[in-house]
Amino acid sequence: MKAMVIYLIFRNDINRGKLTLIAPHATFDGARGQMDAEREYWEDHGAVIEYRTDGSFIVEFGQNKWHFYVVTRTLEV
After folding, report:
1. Do strands 57-61 and 48-51 pair parallel, antiparallel, or not at all (unpaired)?
2. Residue 70 confidence (pLDDT)
3. What pLDDT score was predicted for residue 77?
4. Which regions of 1-77 does DSSP assign to beta strands (E)?
């Protein structure tokens, strides 16, 4: 068997306690690009962005608060 790593981007709705899978990616660069696009979208719409030391970020927009982050999973194929 061969091991393969995938990268999963999640958005955690802090106020509602709801977790949403945004996108799976086969490469770290793909996941990083998607995270940058999410951050830029919210910045362009006037949201407050709190950067975290683990590479994730928190978006505050009005009364909404979301935590965007990436996790990895190893698949055996």
Report:
1. antiparallel
2. 97
3. 82
4. 3-13, 18-25, 48-51, 57-61, 64-76
Give the pTM.
0.90
Instruction: Sort residue 46 into left (φ over 0), alpha (ψ -120 to 50) or beta.
Output: left
* DSSP designation for 36: H
Give, in order, the Cα–Cα distances in Å from 57 to each of 19, 26, 48, 76. Answer: 15, 21, 10, 30
Residue 42 identity: W
Domain boundaries, the chain: 3-76
- Distance (Å, rounded) from C-alpha 36 to C-alpha 3? 27
**Residue 49 structure tokens:** 């962005």
Closest by Cα among 52, 7, 59 to 34: 7
Tokens 């009005």 appear where? 62
Alpha-carbon torsion 22, 23, 24, 25, what sign? negative
Cα distance between residue 47 and residue 42, in whole Å: 5
